[in-house]
Amino acid sequence: MSWIDGMSNSPPLQIDFGEPARAIELLSQACPVEVLNLNQKGMADYCWVDAENRLHQLERKRWDELCADINAVEYQLLRYLAVPSDLGLLIEEFVMPTSSGMRTYSKPRVDERGALKAFHSASYARPYSGIMAKLWSMHRFIEIWTVPNLDATAIAIAAFYHNSMRPSEEHLTFRRNLLGRPQFNANPYVRTLMGVIDPERRTLFGPKLSEQLIERFGTPWAVYSASRSELIKVDGIGVTRAQRLWRALGRKE
Fold it and tell me: What strand order describes the sheet that includes 13-16?
């Protein structure tokens, strides 16, 4: 990571004082940082405000912490969700299923031949499927990423931070039919539908209608794939709005 020109003009990346010194060192080379007691204030390990004045929170965990007590992690994240923000979870290192449960691997490194090496950390009798099911449930409300080590965590956070400092009109990913998130909602599927626009760049779904659609279809993809007859069964979706959605998606009527 290298020094970023003009970064002093951006709001600081706030880091909890309990985070590893290595992470603080790396991030201070790429972002303006401020070390605070965030966790005591009910905030995640990393926080910042983006170019659109939206708060982002990121919590850093290791697989060992999730395997030991994922319910405690869930409770901690629930506290952070009480603050209106986009919340994410970064999980470090590796976990593998075994015949008796799970095994975590810590401190991965690359040897002189370029092969990945990892040191065994701990074994857990809990089923791997249970952890995956819990994370699936969590991802309906927060973003989840996995990274191999602490250095990768710092690189990822710096990338997230700098990307969020660009105004929305500079972001081209999915720009053709998706706007920024106009209002906060804890469910990322609802937020996605709230950002869908028609070819005239008019928002198609408000918060309430987006929630109704996700409640009925489950995911944005299922909404996009639904037939017109299925869509108009939802209160608030008429033939005209269904046609606008199909045009936005490039589907043939």
Answer: 33-36, 13-16, 46-49, 55-62, 86-92, 143-147
- State if pTM tops 0.70: no
CATH number for the segment(s) 172-249:
1.10.150.20
pLDDT band at 250 (very low <50, low <70, confident <90, very high): confident
Task: Give span(s): CATH 3.40.50.10130, the chain.
Answer: 7-164
| Per-residue pLDDT reduced to its tens digit, 177-218 | 555 445 566 788 888 888 887 777 778 888 889 999 999 999
Q: Contact, 65 vs 73, CB < 8 A?
A: yes
Q: Could you tell me the CA-to-CA distances from 30 to 8, 106, 164, 229 in Å, in that order? A: 11, 25, 14, 51
pLDDT of residue 249: 79
7-164 is classed CATH 3.40.50.10130: yes
